[in-house]
């Protein structure tokens, strides 16, 4: 793939949209468990974030069912925190909430992560990035670089005890939190690679046999990931609760137009308005690529 077919280095993930069955319950959960503020409360939708920047949009869809475990869709949304104290405060808050389900934790070498499920079963990762200069990369002899990641023990009680501060707890709403990456369930990894790498223009950064794929722009460890751990062989999604839309932000309309051309060349249907582009992956996961300033990242 040529350099002009890659997503720009300053590509970033925008707020995730979730379809929810109980809007009041879910908006309260994201506010109280994760320390997010309500930024917009409209008819049938609530936007939450921090410091005026959206992290998640919840849209009421009570008529829809929950997806089966093996269906393609969202594996987790990953919220990135600026330092370990902010992460510890978020983990402690999520762990105390009666509607949180704690899933696990891991030291991934590039990051430190804790995993939960929200009241409707959507996966959430809370994490902190270690400095980029500490990440290790290897080459496979064909010019492909792969970041070294692992899943080492990371005891949550010990982590909170070491890093939690009163300042991080008392001023949580004024501290930054962004969507660092989005992890999807898909039917097979090869199809995911052809779509997310060969067409969209992400670079492959890691993989796990034929079970998982990690991709990024600009040398990040991953902006998106896809796995088949629960969903191998899954076909196109039905309209269910859970993932509504993944937003990818790029710096200018030129990158949006270039991607529109790549999608058209690959025969992938899309809707291009100039500043943003809407389309679906092979499993009907909805994606939107938009210039950073478009509607604050919220449709």
Description of the structure:
This protein is α+β, with helices and mostly antiparallel strands. It has a single domain, classed as 2,3-Dihydroxybiphenyl 1,2-Dioxygenase, domain 1 (Roll). The chain has helices at 23-32, 84-96, 156-163, 166-170, 189-199, 253-265; strands at residues 12-13, 16-20, 37-42, 45-50, 53-60, 73-81, 101-107, 111-117, 123-129, 137-139, 145-147, 177-185, 203-208, 212-216, 224-227, 242-250, 270-272, 276-280, 286-291. Strands 1, 2, 3, 4, 5, 16, 17, 18 and 19 form a nine-stranded mixed sheet that branches. The chain has an eight-stranded mixed sheet with strand order 7-8-9-6-12-15-14-13, covered by helices on one side. Strand 17 (270-272) and strand 18 (276-280) form a beta hairpin. Helix 2 packs across helix 3 (156-163). The model has no long low-confidence stretch (mean pLDDT 95).
Outline of the structure:
With 299 residues, this protein is an alpha+beta fold. Helix content is 20%, strand content 37%.
Which percent range describes the beta-strand content?
A: 35-45%
Helix-strand pattern: EEHEEEEHEEEEEHHEHEEEEHEEE
Specify the CATH homologous superfamily.
2,3-Dihydroxybiphenyl 1,2-Dioxygenase, domain 1
Biggest β-sheet description: 9 strands, mixed
Low-confidence stretches: none
- On the 0-100 scale, what is the average pLDDT? 95
User: If you consult CATH, what is the topology?
Assistant: 2,3-Dihydroxybiphenyl 1,2-Dioxygenase, domain 1
Cα Rg? 18 Å
Can you tell me the CATH class? Alpha Beta
**Contiguous helical run count:** 6
Name the shape in a single word: globular
Count the beta strands: 19
Task: Give helix % range.
Answer: 10-25%
């Amino acid at each position: 793939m040529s350099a002009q077919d890659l997503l720009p280095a300053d590509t970033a993930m925008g707020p995730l949209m979730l379809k929810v069955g109980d809007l009041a319950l879910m908006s309260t959960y994201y506010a109280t468990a994760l320390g997010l503020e309500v930024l917009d409360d409209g008819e049938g939708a609530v936007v939450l974030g921090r410091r005026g920047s959206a992290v998640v949009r919840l849209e009421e869809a009570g008529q829809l069912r929950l997806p089966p475990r093996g269906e393609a869709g969202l594996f987790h949304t990953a919220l990135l925190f600026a330092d370990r104290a902010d992460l510890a405060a978020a983990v402690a808050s999520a762990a105390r909430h009666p509607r949180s389900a704690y899933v696990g934790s891991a030291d991934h070498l590039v990051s430190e992560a804790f995993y939960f499920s929200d009241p409707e079963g959507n996966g959430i990762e809370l994490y902190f990035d270690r400095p980029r200069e500490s990440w290790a990369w290897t080459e496979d002899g064909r010019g492909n670089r792969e970041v070294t990641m692992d899943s080492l023990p990371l005891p949550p009680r010990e982590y909170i005890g070491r890093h939690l501060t009163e300042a991080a707890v008392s001023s949580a709403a004024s501290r930054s939190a962004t969507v660092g990456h989005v992890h999807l369930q898909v039917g097979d990894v090869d199809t995911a690679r052809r779509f997310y790498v060969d067409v969209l223009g992400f670079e492959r950064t890691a993989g796990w046999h034929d079970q998982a794929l990690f991709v990024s722009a600009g040398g990040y460890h991953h902006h998106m990931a896809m796995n088949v751990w629960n969903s191998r062989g899954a076909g196109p999604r039905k309209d269910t609760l859970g993932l509504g839309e993944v937003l990818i932000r790029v710096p200018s309309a030129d990158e949006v137009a270039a991607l529109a051309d790549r999608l058209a060349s690959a025969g992938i249907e899309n809707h291009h308005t100039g500043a943003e582009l809407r389309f679906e992956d092979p499993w009907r996961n909805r994606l939107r690529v938009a210039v950073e300033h478009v509607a604050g990242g919220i449709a």
